[in-house]
Amino acid sequence: MYGFYNTFLEHQQPGRTSDGQGGFRINWATVSTIRARVRPASGSDVRRGGKDSARLTHVAYCEVDDQIRVSDRFYDSAIDRIYSILNIRQPGGIAHHLEIDCQEFKSGSD
Predict the structure, then answer these.
(1) Does the pLDDT value for residue 53 go beyond 70?
(2) Which residues contact 32 (CB under 8 A, 6 or more apart)?
(3) Segments forming the whole domain that contains residue 92
(4) What is the pLDDT of residues 29-46, one digit of tens each?
(5) Is residue 1 situated within a structural domain?
(6) Among 1, 14, 35, 58, whose CB has the most other CB atoms within 10 angstroms?
């Protein structure tokens, strides 16, 4: 599958820091860099997407990584885009690759 992946994404997880006024700010920390392929979502992806289908904009493919969670995001520094992770699938239940439904954001709008 190495020839299939055509980009590198920063896998980021959220953390909280106090804002000094009783609340908190979300900050994102890069936990790994992964080889991936990202494509725009098709009509069939949106129909399959269930409750998050209205927000589904892209599908990412990557090798299996047990640390990737729905609350995480990917950052593509080559095009300055953020992909919020909506859903994670492991087709066929085998440890071959993940298909990840994402919503795209421009950097700075998170």
Answers:
(1) no
(2) 10, 11, 65, 67
(3) 7-106
(4) 999 999 999 999 886 665
(5) no
(6) 58
Is residue 2 in some structural domain? Answer: no
| pLDDT tens per residue across span 60-90 | 999 999 999 999 999 999 999 999 999 999 9
The reply to whether 93 falls in a domain is: yes
Return the amino acid letter for 57.
T
Stretch (H or E) spanning 60: strand 58-62
DSSP string for 6-41: -EEEEEEEEEEEE-SSS-EEEEEEEEEEEEEEEEE-
Task: Please give the C-alpha separations between residue 96 and each of 32, 38, 48, 68, in angstroms, as whole numbers.
Answer: 19, 17, 21, 15
| Domain-located, residue 72 | yes
CATH number at residue 56: 2.40.10.270
Q: Which residues contact 96 (CB under 8 A, 6 or more apart)?
A: 1, 64, 90
pLDDT at residue 104, as a whole number: 93
Closest by CA to 73, choosing from 20, 10, 15, 16, is 10
